[in-house]
Structure formats: C-alpha cells, structure tokens
C-alpha cells in the first residue's frame, strides 16, 4: 500500500491553513501506487488528492506540477495542482515535498472496448496538442542512454537467448531513432490504470510523474501496447485501429510517423521489458515490491519483431 | 432569455478547433442572465459554459477571466477559464469577445438555512484570502462617484421623501467611507442566484463580472443583505450571525470592521437601491428588461438606518 509517510488530520489541518480549501472533512489513505504517499482529502471546497513525494525532489517536481496545471488550464481532464497562499503548487509536509491536486471522477478499465480505445486515442491527441504550448522541457530519463545502461545491468540475470534478444534490440534502436519525428510533451505511462473512465468518457488522465519531452509517436505506442493488447502479446486489430484512427483525427500522423510505427511499438515494448527486468532483479533496498512480470513485455516485443513489416495501422 | 447572439454547432465546432476540448457533443442556450449570451457546452472532455460578452470589452475582460483562473487555481470552486492554443482565455466568436469556462455543479438556493449561510460565509472568507495574491486591480465602477452621479440621474423620478432619503444617504456615506478597512478582491454581487449549492456544500461561485477591488467588509454586507434577509427588510438574526461567525472563523474581522458594520450594511443596500432605480427609470434602449423591484432595497436600507446602533453581529 502507498502510505509511506503518515499524515494525521491535525497535521493536515495545520498545513491547509496555507491554502484556501476550507475545512478538512475527510482524510483517507490510498492503497495503490508504489512511488508516493497518496491520500484522498475532502474539504468544504471539494475533493482533492494529497501526494507526499517519497523520491522525486523539489528540483524535479515543478516540471510535473506545472505540466498538470498547464493541461488542466487547457481543459484536459487531469489533476489540477492547487496553489497555496504564496502561489506555490509545492509545499513541504512531514518533511516531504507535498502537493494537493483536484480529484477526478471515474474508474480504471480492465478490458477497454474499441469505443473506449478510440476515446483514449482522441484524448492522447488532445493532450499532445495542448502540450505544444507548455514552456518547460525535460529530456526522457528513460531514453536511449538509460535503456543501454540498464540493459547492461540486467543482462547477467537473463538466459542466453533473452540476453541476445535484449542486446540486439538495443543495437537496433541505436540505428532506428525516433528523434526526427514530431516531438513534444508525452505522458510516457498512459496505461489503463492511469486513466479514469466515466462510462465511455475519459474522466481523467492521472500520474504524470513519468512525463517528459520525447517523440509523440512513442507515447502512442506505449498507450497502444497496453490498451490494445490481446492475450497472446499480439495487438487486437479492432482496438488498435480504433485508437490510432481517433488519435489521427485529432493530430494527423505524418508520413514519417506512419513509416516508423513498427519501430515505435518495439522501442515502447523494450522500455517496459527493461524496467520490469530491473525491478525484478535489482529491487532497490527497502522498496515495496510490486514487480510486474517482465515476460509479458518480452512477448509483446517478440510479436512486434515478428509482425514488423505488417503492423496494424489506421482504419 | 439570455441568448442575444446565436451560435450554431458548426460555428462552435470551428471555434473549438483552437482548443483542446475534444469533440462537441451538446450545445444548449441558457435562459437566464441579462448581460451576456450563455450556452451550456458538453464535449468529450467534459461540461463547460460558453459566454459571449455583449457589453464587456476586450479591455475589461482580462481582470475577470484572470481572477476566475486565479481563484480556481487556489481551489475556490468557481468557473475556470479554458486557455486556447495561443494561451489566451479570451477569443472572438461571431464578432463578440468569448470565453469558455468549466461548468460547476449544484443549484441556487431560494431559502438558505443557517447552515448554508455559514457555508457561504466561510467560502466568502476563503475567496477574500485567495484574492489577496491576485496581481491585477480594478477600482469599483459602482463606488462613491457612480453612486452620487446615478443618484442625481434617478432623483427626479422619486417621491419627495424618497429623494430626500437618497440624498441624505449619499451625504452620509461621503463622511463614512470604508476605505480605511482591509481591501481586496470582492465579488460584489454574491446573491443567492450567483452561488450553486450541492446540498450543504458550496459547489460554485459564479458570475464574477461585477468583481473589483474594494473593502472586504462591503462584500460581506452585500452578501448578508441577500442571504440573511427576512421578509420585512430586516435581517434574520440566526442566519446573519451564522454567516458572519463562519466568515470570521476564516478571516477574522478587525475592530474597525466591527465598528463600521452598520455603515457597510447601509452602503451595500444603497448601491442596489440606486442600480435598481436606474434600471427601472432609465433602461438602456433595446435592453431586455429584467428589472428587480427597487422598493425592496429601499426597505432594507431604512431598516438598517433604524437599527444602526444595534446591528446584528457575531455569535
């Protein structure tokens, strides 16, 4: 569970005196998430989420918080950070950097329909367009350098064929970069559990703490690899086409993006295979383990390699 | 009804292409308000209100729109203007300055309880505190100069006793200014129809187009004169004490404010007596008439004068 740092009602009431959020009515720890401490907070002004950042620092956080504020101001349904009386989104609570953001409605989906995949495709397109006017920039901390270095670290835990696959994929992407494609702010982790749905409507995009600047197509690939996946590591055709076509209706893909789509799918799968291998084999000391199965993304990667000349694209 | 300028779905869809709000799902004119054209707008991103400003200009609007954005960023439940791709809250639609803002939930109350009066008192205090860090300033366009000038214009329509009352009140307030009291951003029109309630919770403060910088106590008096009024022009004691005590719990009144409370009640009543006289006797040509009864605020004013030494104050 995700309450690493406990906050009492008295502590929160004192902290909230620097905000215009009214009187605290309810405080409830949230039992999910592995990086931060999260609480649902209800005040006389409404429903909010309090986050105490356990790893991210005062230096890294302004990018994420200002990005959420920027997107919310553009009407993207994402958590809007609340400013304190000093006009700051970031405070300190119980020794940790802390922020309080608006709470969105809706629930994560387990099995999205094609209609819901289209909805997330459109929303991702809207988010990419709205992000174009965001003033800050952050290079992807899990880009090519991180992939190569982390692959090196986890390679020794792998079987010979897996180690070979990993090494050859690292090589492949060295000569197949997405850096010439349209760039911008990407969510970089828009899995189903980071989207709240209200029936067929996207009620909220959450958890922007992997957001960065990178190829927009890479973000689409990350999203497709989760939302449109079949049981066997191969993409479901109907859902994939629905998501891509809806995205294309908001931000049309360029010819270069169409050509590099199979590469984007592969590198997006590779990134999560590597991070899951790392979390499994090299857990940080004292970490709450919540390791996802790396095999899943290895299979997805293998399927993408197998179907590379024949990737599912627009309707 | 308040659709002075018609907007078709096709026109709105074209206009929304400059926003990140998704696809238009529903457009519905709002049959209330007398100053602007308002529509409820539902898109795939959520629920919004579109306003075409019929009288306010591109020069006046930034104060109001930036104020709403400022308060929303501080967690005050008020309409949050949506920025377009050029980072502007204000656009032009069908030849009128236009803005699209978030739509809040709740309904206006007709007969607020003491609990609800306390809720609006707290919220007004929170709004005044949050407004302290707002960077723009606008002198009250309906301050002392406007009162004197407008009283002059409407005087000739009044009976002799009413004209005498009006003139003597204008004189009284010349020597009883609130300008030494704590100043800040005030809503200046926080009547029941400008507040959306969700049971006993304030769901939203709306219609900020009379907002300005003035004495905070004056805003409290305007609010009390509407929310806490009995049937006979005299304040209801329980509701008045509840509102004031709740406000005081958020932003404590100063001793000077306590002393000038009877004056604030009188000048707040006078302002609405004058504007209602003006709307009744000097309607602007072609205006949709929606004149409220000036007599109501004359009676309120007379009651305040009668009970001046004995005004209801904190619990």
From TrEMBL, chains A, B:
Q: Give every Aminoglycoside phosphotransferase domain span.
A: 27-253
Q: Which family does it belong to?
A: Belongs to the pseudomonas-type ThrB family.
EC number assigned by the record? 2.7.1.39
Query: Which of the seven top EC classes does this enzyme belong to?
Result: transferase
- Describe which pathway this protein belongs to, using the record's wording: Amino-acid biosynthesis; L-threonine biosynthesis; L-threonine from L-aspartate: step 4/5
This protein is called Homoserine kinase
The gene from which this protein is expressed is: thrB
Question: Has UniProt tagged this entry with the keyword Hydrolase?
Answer: no
């Amino acid at each position: 569970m995700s309450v690493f740092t406990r906050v009492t009602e008295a502590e929160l009431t004192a902290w909230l005196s620097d905000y215009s959020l009214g009187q605290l009515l309810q405080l409830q720890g949230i039992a999910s998430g592995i990086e931060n401490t999260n609480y649902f907070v209800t005040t006389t002004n409404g429903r909010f989420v309090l986050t105490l950042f356990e790893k991210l620092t005062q230096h890294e956080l302004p990018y994420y918080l200002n990005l959420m504020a920027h997107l919310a101001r553009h009407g993207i349904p994402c958590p809007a950070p609340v400013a304190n009386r000093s006009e700051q989104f970031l405070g300190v609570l119980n020794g940790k950097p802390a922020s309080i953001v608006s709470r969105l409605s809706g629930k994560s989906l387990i099995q999205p329909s094609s209609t819901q995949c289209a909805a997330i495709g459109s929303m991702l397109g809207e988010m990419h367009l709205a992000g174009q006017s965001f003033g800050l920039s952050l290079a992807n901390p899990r880009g090519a350098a991180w992939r190569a270095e982390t692959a090196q670290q986890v390679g020794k835990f792998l079987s010979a064929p897996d180690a070979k696959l990993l090494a050859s994929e690292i090589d492949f992407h060295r000569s197949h970069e997405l850096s010439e494609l349209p760039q911008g702010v990407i969510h970089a982790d828009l899995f189903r559990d980071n989207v709240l749905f209200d029936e067929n409507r996207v009620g909220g995009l959450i958890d922007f703490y992997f957001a960065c600047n990178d190829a927009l197509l890479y973000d689409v690939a990350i999203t497709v690899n989760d939302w449109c996946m079949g049981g066997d590591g191969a993409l479901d055709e109907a859902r994939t086409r629905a998501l891509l076509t809806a995205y294309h209706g908001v931000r049309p893909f360029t010819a270069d993006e169409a050509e590099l789509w199979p590469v984007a799918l592969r590198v997006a799968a590779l990134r999560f295979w590597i991070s899951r291998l790392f979390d499994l084999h090299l857990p940080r000391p004292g970490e709450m383990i919540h390791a996802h199965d790396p095999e899943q993304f290895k299979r997805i990667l293998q399927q993408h390699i197998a179907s590379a000349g024949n990737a599912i694209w627009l309707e």
